[in-house]
Write a structure and sequence with these properties.
Elements (H helix, E strand, L loop, with lengths): L1 H17 L5 H9 L3 H11 L2 H23 L11 H25 L1
C-alpha cells in the first residue's frame, strides 16, 4: 500500500513539475524508486490470492497512469478536480480502495 501511494505521488509530482508528456527515463525512475515492483512480487508470494489479485489490479492501474503521462498531454494533471485527471485517476482510486477494504477484511 505504501509503495503504491508513494509511487502515485512521485509520478504525479513529476508530471506537475515537468508537464506532460513526461520523458520516459525520469518517469520510470520516479515509478520504480519506491521499490514498487519487488514489493508487488512479495505480495504475490505471501498474501492470499484475492489480495494479490487486487494488488496487481492497483499496480496495473497505476502503471496505466504512468504510461499515459509518458505518451500524451494530460491538461488537468495539476488540478485534482479536472475531468481529464479524474478520468485517468479514478480507476486507480477505485482499485486502491478495493484493495484497502480487502486487506482490512483479511486481518480481522
Amino acid at each position: 500500500m505504501t509503495a503504491l501511494t508513494k509511487t502515485e505521488h512521485a509520478i504525479r509530482q513529476l508530471a506537475q513539475d515537468e508537464g506532460t508528456p513526461v520523458a520516459r527515463a525520469p518517469m520510470r525512475e520516479a515509478f520504480y524508486r519506491n521499490d514498487i515492483l519487488p514489493l508487488r512480487y512479495q505480495v504475490s508470494m505471501v498474501a492470499p490470492d484475492e489480495i494479490s489479485r487486487l494488488a496487481d489490479e492497483a499496480y496495473a492501474q497505476l502503471r496505466d497512469i504512468r504510461d499515459e503521462m509518458i505518451h500524451r498531454e494530460i491538461p488537468g494533471v495539476s488540478d485534482s478536480r479536472s475531468p481529464e485527471w479524474l478520468a485517468l485517476h479514478d480507476p486507480y482510486v477505485k482499485a486502491i480502495n478495493t484493495l484497502r477494504v480487502a486487506m482490512r477484511s483479511d486481518i480481522r
